[in-house]
Each structure stands twice: as structure tokens, then as C-alpha cells.
Amino acid sequence: MGKTEKNLACSNDVVSSVCETHWEMAAKTRMGKYLTAVEASFITKAVDFSLTSFVLDVGAESGRISFLALNNKTTVVVSIDIDCGSLKRFKQRTKQAYIVAADARNLPFRNEVFDATFMIEVLDYIPELDVALNECNRTLKHNSTCVLSFGNRASFKAKLKGLKGKSYLHSYKRVMQDLSKTDFLICAKLGYNWLPFGRTSQNGIIPLLAWLERAVGLRRLCKYSPWVMFHVAKPIDKQSS
Predict the structure, then answer these.
(1) What is the pLDDT of residues 125-136, one digit of tens each?
(2) Is residue 17 part of a domain?
(3) Closest by CA position to 171, among listed 186, 151, 197
């Protein structure tokens, strides 16, 4: 990682008090808790934190996923984002993570340094999907893990969003193609967020619908799912094996 310091790259000033971010507040809602629970469960199944000492959280915001790694005793967690305001908030919340202002398309780290990388709910803001995936692959050690998520542009929910002038950036098919081009191996995948609510919803039937989503097998229909998670691995270097 070179001489990256345990401070905020976007400012040398003393960090002033920063209020809770939108994403922090959303995480406390019924819908936010459902999304976080699904993502955290998938991550903990994908990553053996007892064997993971050096983790990169891309699009860390104010630390939602970084805290999952920190709470599992990961030795070093490097958290990056391009939003300096969110990173200032994260710096208020912990002194354990290495917090860096950086872009997923140009990671300021050496090759093959991380044991695991998280890219949760960040690819929807990056049109250059192949560039971000290649950067992730470059900085991961061989036989290491990346967990990523994205909104599926080909899903029915995305088409409804399109009627309102909004949409997701990437389709399931495109992500599969770019993962293959990047030489990532797909270990597991999960579809989720079939619920007809926004992430700040407090609707009382969210727990029931979340249970039904799992019970009827919607999470296995990744190709059609509104959101998708992948557990991928960078294969062992055949030249060194």
C-alpha cells in the first residue's frame, strides 16, 4: 500500500462535526436493516475473516461494510470513497480503519496486496465497470476474494425505475461478461431486493416480504433479480504454483 497514512487524503484540516449521512439514517429503517442483513450474511459466508488480515472496502461511505470487517477482527481495513464528507463522518466514528479519498477506477495501491475486497452498492455509480473490476483484480492477492453488488438493469424493478427517469447502470449479462474478461472465478451469487420499497421505507410488512423472498426461492433467480451479489475469486497464479 506504500506510504498511505491513517488520515483523510482530501483534507489536512481538523475534522469538524459531521451529522449522520443519508446512508446511515437509511440503514436504521426496516428496509435498510433488511438490505444490510442480506449483504452482511452473504459476506460472512464468502470471507473467512480468521484468514483475512488486509481488506479493502471500495465505496466505503461512512463505514457500514468496513465495520463488519473491523468487528470480525480484521487486522487492517482500508476504506476508500470519493465523497470526502462521508469519509469525514467515518473518521469521526472510528480510528481503526485507514481512510483514503480515492476512486475505484484508479486505486492508489500496489499490485496484489489485499486478501479481500468489498464493492457493495458502489458499481451503480461507475459507468466504467471493466476498469473498476480490473483495478480490483490488480490489487487482490491470488486466491483471494472480492464481494460485489449491483443493481440489475435488466430486472423488472429497473424497468419501473426507468419510467421515472432513473435506472441502474449495469445488466446481469454485462457484469457476467466483464467478470469473465477480468478472469475472476464466480464462487457464489445471490439475488435480492425484490421488495417494492425504497431503502428508507419503514413499511411494516417488510420483514414478511423478506422472509417470502427467501422462502419461495427468489434469491436464486439472479438473472432477473433487482439487485445481485457476487462472491468472486482471483485464481491462483499458475506460473508460481
Answers:
(1) 999 999 999 999
(2) no
(3) 151
What CATH number corresponds to the domain at position 99?
A: 3.40.50.150
CB 65 within 8 A of CB 43: yes
Q: Is 23 left (phi over 0), alpha (psi -120 to 50) or beta?
A: alpha
In a domain, 12, yes or no: no
Number of domains present in the structure of the chain: 1
pLDDT at 119: 98
Q: Is the pLDDT of residue 5 over 50?
A: no
Question: How far apart are alpha carbons 231 and 189 in whole angstroms?
Answer: 6
Distance set, CA 63 to CA 76, 117, 226 (Å): 14, 14, 24
Q: What would the grid cell of residue 233 be?
A: 475469486
Determine contact, residues 92/114, Cβ cutoff 8 Å: no
19: left (phi over 0), alpha (psi -120 to 50) or beta: beta
Give the whole-angstrom CA distance, residue 45 versus residue 36: 14
pLDDT of residue 17: 52
- Kindly state the DSSP code that residue 170 receives in the 8-state scheme: B
DSSP state of 153: T
Phi and psi, residue 186, nearest 5°: -85, 120
What is residue 226's predicted lDDT score, i.e. its pLDDT?
Answer: 97
Domain that holds residue 132: 22-234
With respect to residue 26, please indicate whether it lies within any of the assigned structural domains: yes
- Is beta strand 185-192 parallel, antiparallel or unpaired with respect to 227-234? antiparallel
| Residue burial 16-41, b: 16+ Cβ < 10 Å; e: rest | eebeebebbebbebbbbebbbebbbe
Query: 194: closest CA among 179, 206, 178?
Result: 206
